[in-house]
Amino acid sequence: MSDIMYPVSFGKLMNHIMTEYSLYNRIYNVKKIHRTTHNKSLSLFGRKLENPLGPAAGPNTQLAQNIVASYVGGARCIELKTVQIMYGEELGIPRPCINSVDEAYNVEWSAEYRCDKAAEEYIKAWFAIHLIAKEYNLGDPHGFMFIMSVGYNLAGIQSELVDDFIETMRHGKRSPMWNECKQWALDNLHKFENIDTDYINSISDEICVAITLSTMHGCPAEEIESICTYLMKDKGLNLYLKCNPTLLGPKTVRQLLDDAGFKYIEFDEHQFDVDLKFDAAIPMLERLLAVGADAGVVFGVKLTNTFPVAIHNHELPGEQMYMSGKSLLPLTVGVAQLLSSHFGSRLPISYSGGAVKQNIKSIFECGIWPITVCTILLQGEGYDTFKSLADAVETGDYELAKSVQKDKIKQLVEDIGNNKLFKKSEVMQKKRDAHPSFPDTRAQDYQCRVLCGACVRVCPNRTNEILTIGNKRIIIHIDESCNECGNCACHCIEPCQPYKDRLTYFHNELALDDSTNDGFYVLGTLCGYRFKGVAGVCDIDALPEELKGVVQAFIKEHAYYVS
Question: For the chain: N or C, fewer Cβ within 10 A?
């Protein structure tokens, strides 16, 4: 099994979207398609937003298909995966890298693609969303936005590689990928009912006017301030500075985690010594507000970054992991209360840290937005979760949410602290103790004892599919976009590791050779395969009978992978 993701062309992306939609009324397995039916809107950085919801910079915004799936589900403010000067193997990301059984943990911390390749993914997503928004009447093509995210120090951000990424996100035409997307659309006008040449030519290449800054834990205050000043003053970008939960101090963090039932979470108090402290943050944020005002851009904070904790139950490889989701919720709203008590409505706050259907409207009406999510997309219904989140937040008071409401934030903190829904439950504690995070299994019959489909729903990269063969259904793994994050294994009820244990579709011979999985690739009427100890290349009709049925069903049901 290879952990390398292979980007698909824009043509293949659009063929997949349009074919799957026409056959199954879904897009990248998102069945709960959200269509904007209200006439409310927000204004952010001079742009329109139909709602303030989106995926956080993370596994759900690294590939074009992730971003498209988010939009289809209801996301309208998409924070792109953080890029930096390092990429690929240089990052040293262990596998698996995500565990999201309840609260979530990860050891992946940056985009795996080089900046220019990441930019291509974001351009493809931007163009595709503009096409499908109009073609399928999903919403106003001008009612969504992308916010780029960069890290992690000034030298890296000023490097030619990252600077070129920033400029490409500001003006997509700088990349050859822009013309590739546009030309495909012009050449395939016959496939659309609601798209014409004028519309394609009108799609703006000004992809991002805002940026989120992520810095390493322990980054000095003067370095943070220098980066923010550079991005606002020299680059003219609206900016959200991602802040750390450590602003609360170790005693408060410990108390909040204990009160929410997370007494077992361990952290090193040394990080509070090296991270930005609240007393130093206040004057720095005041100065940065002034810099933003002078530069004519918006400065605000993103609450919050993930929180480094000890690996205590073999959740992931290594000694330290980053915590998010339910356990981050009390810390994030706590930081919001801390900052709003000083700044009131003067400091814009965007949010990421445990937002769910039951609290997202309340967070929004505190004037805290955009609201981005990650953990909840890695659980349960996956991207289909966006529909309920969008429905909830769109019932909120858009007028009330225009400015930060410190009194409402104080009430939000109290409500969350008193609500058992936002605490660790005994049921989930037992599940955590009983369910091996990453079972060591290799199922040679490739069958699920119970086909629950969890691995299809929770995969951020859309790399598992259900296949029907006669009266049976099986899971087929798609190698092309898998980076072995392991999230599907976390939620498998058997348990197994679907990305290793299921028959796999490969996009070519080299990909099959680079993997240990049994599986196949299709080349016209020929099929290359490795299956139960036998490998070869032959006509599809000459395949071993059991495998032939799988291949034929895959081509019939999921033609968009092989065409």
Answer: C
Q: In this structure, what token pair is assigned to residue 252?
A: 């408060």
Q: 468 by DSSP, 3-state: which?
A: strand
Picking from 3, 28, 8, the residue whose alpha carbon sits closest to that of residue 108 is 3
Bridge partners of 310, per DSSP, are: 320
Measure the CA–CA gap between 197 and 131, rounded to whole angstroms: 12
Rounded-to-integer distance, Cα 367 and Cα 408, Å: 9
Give the ranges where 309-453 is alpha helix by DSSP (H): 329-343, 360-365, 385-394, 406-418, 426-434
Non-local (6+) Cβ contacts of 387 within 8 A are: 32, 33, 34, 73, 74
φ, ψ dihedrals at 128, nearest 5° = -60, -40
**Rounded Cα gap, residues 534 and 547, in angstroms:** 11
Judge contact between 489 and 496, C-beta under 8 A: yes
Q: Which helix (H) or strand (E) holds 49?
A: strand 47-49
Structure token pair of residue 267? 């952290």
User: For 368-416, what is each residue's pLDDT tens digit?
Assistant: 999 999 999 999 999 999 999 999 999 999 999 999 999 999 999 999 9
The two three-digit tokens of residue 87, written as one number: 């990429």
Short-list 360, 485, 382, 536, CA closest to 4: 485
